[in-house]
Amino acid sequence: MVYLRSVPAPAPGDRLSDNLVLERELVQGGMGSVWVARHEGLGSEVAVKILSGRLVDDDTAKKRFAREAAAAMEVQSPHVVQMLDYGISNDGVPFLVMELLQGEDLEVKLAKGPLPPREVVSIVKQIGQALHRAHERNILHRDIKPANVFLVPSDEFSGDAYFVKLLDFGFAKRLDRMTAPLTEEGMIVGTPQYMSPEQMLGGKLDPRSDLFSLGSIAFEAFTGRRAFAGKTLQEVAFAIQGLQMPSPTHVNPTLPRALDAWFAKACARDRDDRFASAREMVAALEKVFAVAAEPASIEAAPEGRVLPAGRSSWSGRIALLLLLVVAATAVAIFVARAQ
Ligand SMILES: Nc1ncnc2c1ncn2[C@@H]1O[C@H](COP(=O)(O)OP(=O)(O)O)[C@@H](O)[C@H]1O
Ligand SMILES: [Mg+2]
Fold first, then answer.
1. What angle do CA 270, 196, 82 make, to 5 degrees?
2. Could you give the CA distance from residue 90 to residue 267 in angstroms, rounded to a whole number?
3. Which among 67, 62, 69, 78 has a CA at the least distance from the CA of 98?
4. Which of 168, 171, 189 to mutate to test the pocket of ligand 1 (most atoms within 8 A of CB)?
5. How far apart are the first and last CA of the chain?
6. Is 143 a catalytic residue?
7. Residue 319 Cα, ligand 2 centroid: separation in angstroms?
8. Residue 308 — left, alpha, or beta (φ > 0 → left; ψ -120 to 50 → alpha)?
9. CA-proximal residue: ligand 1, atom 13 (nearest)
10. Segment 323-334, tens digit of pLDDT
11. pLDDT per residue over 106-130, tens digit each?
12. Which atom belonging to ligand 1 lies closest to the Cα atom of 103?
């Protein structure tokens, strides 16, 4: 018989451990809740993710929680939220202690509309840097989506509007080490709207699956629309597996045309057609905007250069003609006087 303990829901003032006192709830999530807590040892506020009371007797959920902390620590990127501790509360509930981030997540941000292209490129680059580190260490994130990307407003000295932190390694998976699988092959984890076609089909994944999800986030940040949308799971699946590739410039014609080709490669159905690495994907995006950002006078250079040359040759011809007219008149006057 499975005995389910009833664990009281966390509340402000609860002491999780010797040092940690809950202050206020930030978000209620899928596997638990995220709180602001006071760390008395550090004398500062921290973020604490607490496993839902209904999952405390679920071994898989508990192991996944422990692995989330380990995976995030192992990536060692400044663009991954900093884990500070992992523990079990006095009530037997696992919790993760993290740095408390100021700002908002990308899902909240995008609910207000698309972002300026310069900001999108910077955000994609910083997520790409986190993924590059993770993939180098054979760790897949598997749940790249706007709610798992946190935007911390940057200081005025940085050229970027935000310092980006990747959150939630709860579904992360090691590709090499023989850890006992927490998900069966064929079992789908992740968020459907941002899943690669192979992830949606429950197939074997590699880093290019995370890159597909990053491409899908980029589309939404550039345009304010989901790349692969649908009212039902079936519709979303159809959009992801379907034949029609959405085009960012179709939604927003002021975006550079080259972005369409970038997106088509980022979210190619067949992973062999995608960018091979986060680095390659980010470099290609920067190139799209480096070209697009050149001032109009430079962009129009071939024509611009021809034009002045043409004009100068026309004005030269006119000047020569005038000179001839003047000379002819002078000759005529001279001849007339001479007569
Ligand atoms: N360290 C943090 N600082 C501030 N907010 C956070 C932090 N970690 C998570 N959050 C917020 O809580 C939400 C849920 O956290 P997440 O780790 O993604 O858990 P879940 O497994 O519930 O998706 C995030 O989308 C973000 O808005
Ligand atoms: Mg999350």
1. 130
2. 46
3. 69
4. 168
5. 133
6. yes
7. 73
8. alpha
9. 27
10. 444 444 444 444
11. 999 999 999 999 999 999 999 999 9
12. 4
213 pLDDT higher than 90 = yes
Q: Cα separation of 134 and 130, whole Å?
A: 6
- Phi, psi (deg, nearest 5) at residue 181: -65, 135
Q: Which ligand is nearest to the CA of 81?
A: 1
Residue 177, both tokens: 């080490």
Q: Which ligand 1 atom is nearest residue 34's CA?
A: 12
Residue 97 CA: which ligand is closest?
1
The CATH fold assigned to 104-338 is Transferase(Phosphotransferase); domain 1 (1.10.510)
What is the Å distance from ligand 1's center to 283 Cα? 29
Among 14, 58, 59, 143, which one carries the catalytic annotation? 143
- What CATH fold (topology level) applies to the domain 20-98? Phosphorylase Kinase; domain 1 (3.30.200)
Structure tokens belonging to residue 81: 């939220």
- Which segments of 224-300 does DSSP mark as H helices, in order? 233-241, 248-251, 258-266, 278-293, 296-299
| pTM for this predicted structure | 0.83
For 135, the token pair is 């993939």
| Cα distance between residue 282 and residue 124, in whole Å | 7
- The answer to whether 166 touches 141, Cβ cutoff 8 Å, is yes
Which of 31, 34, 67 to mutate to test ligand 1, by most ligand atoms within 8 A of the CB atom?
Answer: 34
Which residue(s) pair with 85 in the sheet? 97
Would you list the domain boundaries of the chain? 20-98, 104-338
